[in-house]
Write a structure and sequence with these properties.
By secondary structure, this protein is α+β, with helices and mostly antiparallel strands. Helix content is 44%, strand content 18%. The protein is built from twelve helices and nine strands.
Length: 346
């Protein structure tokens, strides 16, 4: 495997990727901070083979990459994959300019590896892609569920603006592909290298303007520092130890499903709280994302009690959906969900 060497890739002037989407301003909207200097975090999902290329022998590549870009780079350990995938997590943090530089250098290295004697026919992407995208640079990101709503914009307008501006293809994971307890959604950006870098710059620059992003960035870095980029699967013994510990879980449910959790005059919710010995809070409807139409259900208590309450809520949802399917002839709800997913992905 070829060693990473930034000298093999002339780093372009990345300022062109960081101009404002609304017309070329070099400052962050609402402040005097020049675009490119604001702090950002980007959680990328990369195929295991690409992760090995980034690390290099005895970690030499990743050290050179950090030195050349100025970004901090953390990679999940061997065998630790992003939930539901075979991808490892690559966490980039630092200024927007340094993170973009790191992504540029990674894409360039992947291109060189793919074009080498042993790399022909490989994928030029930071994760596994479709056959049609084999020769096309691709960046796969994971982002908090609420932040994805900000990124998509009302009826998908913001992400459509990004696609128009950058020329890249941007696909946001559909809500239909998620479970209520999934805290993040994936975003796949593909196209020519310049298009991908421009799109990523637009995404990170826009997110950095929102207050929610600051807390997301802080919690992501704190978790990476204290427990690792990806938490390893817990063994049954570990679960026994956790049973009595305090825990909290957030579920994101369609507004139509909240009624099943509340029950008539709130009685179902009271029963769940009393039976599982937990506290359950449901966000107000007026705080709901108008496009996703999801409300946050937060369960707090001991670890064992929270898992019990989660199972009880899942059972109530299944019963409610089964009754709705029977009333509507088995097809109404599914068709509505498919339509919502299409709109959500713009």
């Amino acid at each position: 495997m070829a060693a990473f060497d930034s000298n093999e890739s002339e780093i372009p002037d990345l300022e062109k990727y960081m101009q404002s989407v609304m017309g070329g301003s070099s400052s962050v909207a609402g402040g005097d901070t020049p675009t490119g200097t604001q702090q950002v975090v980007s959680k990328l999902l990369v195929a295991n083979t690409i992760a090995g290329s980034i690390i290099g022998k005895a970690g030499a590549n990743i050290e050179n990459l950090q030195r050349s870009s100025g970004a901090r780079i953390q990679l999940s350990r061997t065998g630790e994959f992003y939930p539901g995938t075979s991808d490892r997590v690559l966490l980039l943090s630092g200024s927007l300019h340094s993170v973009l530089t790191a992504i540029f250098l990674i894409l360039e290295k992947i291109t060189r590896d793919n074009n080498g004697p042993q790399g022909r026919g490989g994928r030029n992407s930071t994760s596994n892609g479709s056959e049609d995208a084999e020769q096309m640079p691709q960046v796969k990101m994971a982002l908090g569920r609420r932040l994805c709503g900000l990124l998509i914009g009302h009826k998908g307008q913001t992400v459509r603006d990004f696609i128009s501006d950058s020329g890249a293809n941007i696909r946001v994971q559909s809500l239909a592909e998620l479970t209520p307890s999934d805290p993040e959604r994936t975003i796949i950006v593909s196209g020519a290298r310049d298009q991908v870098l421009r799109a990523v710059a637009l995404i990170l620059n826009t997110l950095s303007l929102h207050e929610q992003y600051g807390s997301y960035m802080e919690s992501t870095l704190q978790l990476a520092t204290n427990q690792g980029v990806v938490l390893p699967p817990r063994s049954s013994a570990a679960k026994n130890v956790l049973t009595g510990m305090r825990a909290s879980l957030s579920l994101f449910l369609p507004d139509d499903d909240v009624g099943a959790v509340l029950g008539r005059k709130g009685q179902t919710l009271v029963d769940i709280q009393q039976s599982a010995r937990v506290t359950v809070k449901i966000s107000d409807r007026n705080k709901m994302d108008p496009d996703a139409k999801e409300r946050e259900v937060t369960i707090a208590g001991t670890y064992g009690a929270v898992k019990l309450a989660e199972a009880m809520i899942a059972e109530k949802l299944n019963q409610s959906r089964a009754r709705a399917s029977t009333r509507e002839g088995g097809g109404g709800r599914d068709n509505q969900g498919a339509s919502g997913a299409d709109e959500d992905n713009a």
